[in-house]
Amino acid sequence: MGNLITPGGTAAILQKYNFNFQKQFGQNFLIDPHVLDKIIRDSGITKEDTVIEVGPGIGTMTQALCENAGQVIAVEIDRNLIPILENDTLKDYDNVTVINEDILNVDIKKLLSEHGAASAKVVANLPYYITTPIILGLLKGKAPVESITVMVQKEVALRMQASVGEEDYSALSLAVQYYADVYYAANVPANCFIPRPGVGSAVVRLDVLTEPRVSVKDEELMFKLIRASFNQRRKTLMNGIKNSTELEFDRDAVASALEKIGKDVSVRGEKLSLSDFAALSDALGS
Question: What is the pTM of this model?
């Protein structure tokens, strides 16, 4: 067992290494041990698991992951944090590997294979500016990931779990729910971080489905329709598709497809469920 970082210890380590926060990396380090414990519990990790942590920071959560998982692969983009992790906070753990990489450029399947693992659970306090690309990259890239337990901006967490017709329902809701079950675990106040973020945060767990939630002939077309529908929320789905730079369907084709799935031409995209979008995609693609 390593020497666990305390909230006060975080400040001491940052001072010891003369560390400066990098705005471009969206760094907000978690310092609340109760929130940390909840993340570990909700992630459901065991000694049988390989865990990928995105953005370990100074290693506060990494230490807890090492205590609970079989092996941990920590992917950190900021090279200034590598000496802190390797020479200080993680030096007492023999089940962790620190990689100085951008997670968006990492081949997850290859990385796991190199570490003798067929799959992994992802646990992370994600930089808010890049939350969506990371999550959708993991899901759409069909990485061998069983679950994704992450700290994200509260607004994003609400969008991920929203259902059809709700205020927060969005293209992100549909994309995430196509690949995973969403469990909203906890709200996290700003005083749980150094430095304090300007927005509320939340912990969510995505349990990745073995097969996508709905069957669709052309996945890419379905997501183009979803994006077109939500790019202009106040417009009808018909107008959203007409104004899309990704789609080339005339009004008659869209009207015919909507009629085929039992929807009026004046319907807005926010009123369509994932199954509806799949059916519309199949109708337009046939």
Answer: 0.92
Which residue in 132, 153, 131 sits closest to 199, CA to CA? Answer: 153
SS3 content of the chain, % helix, strand, coil (to 5): 45, 15, 35
Task: Provide the angle, in degrees to the nearest 10, between the axes of the packed helices 274-285 and 219-231.
Answer: 120
Q: Is CATH 1.10.8.100 the right assignment for the domain spanning 219-285?
A: yes
Phi and psi dihedrals of 203, rounded to 5? Answer: -105, 130
Tell me: the pLDDT tens digits for 194-222? Answer: 888 888 999 999 999 999 999 999 999 99
| CA distances from residue 10 to 32, 89, 160 in whole angstroms, order as listed | 11, 10, 31
pLDDT tens-digit readout, 80-122: 999 999 999 999 999 999 999 999 999 999 999 999 999 999 9
Asked if pLDDT for residue 9 goes beyond 80, the answer is no
Contact status, residue 243 vs residue 228, Cβ threshold 8 Å: yes
pLDDT at 145 > cutoff 80:
yes
CATH topology of domain 7-208: Rossmann fold (3.40.50)
Answer yes or no: is pLDDT of 6 > 70: no
Q: What are the extents of the domains in the chain?
A: 7-208, 219-285
Asked if 106 and 75 count as a contact pair (C-beta separation under 8 A), the reply is: yes
Find out whether 221 and 246 touch, Cβ atoms under 8 Å: no
Taking the CA of residue 116 as centre, how many other CA atoms within 13 Å lie in the half-sphere pointing to its CB? 6
Domains 7-208 and 219-285 belong to one CATH topology: no
For residues 121 and 147, the answer to whether their CB atoms sit within 8 Å is: yes
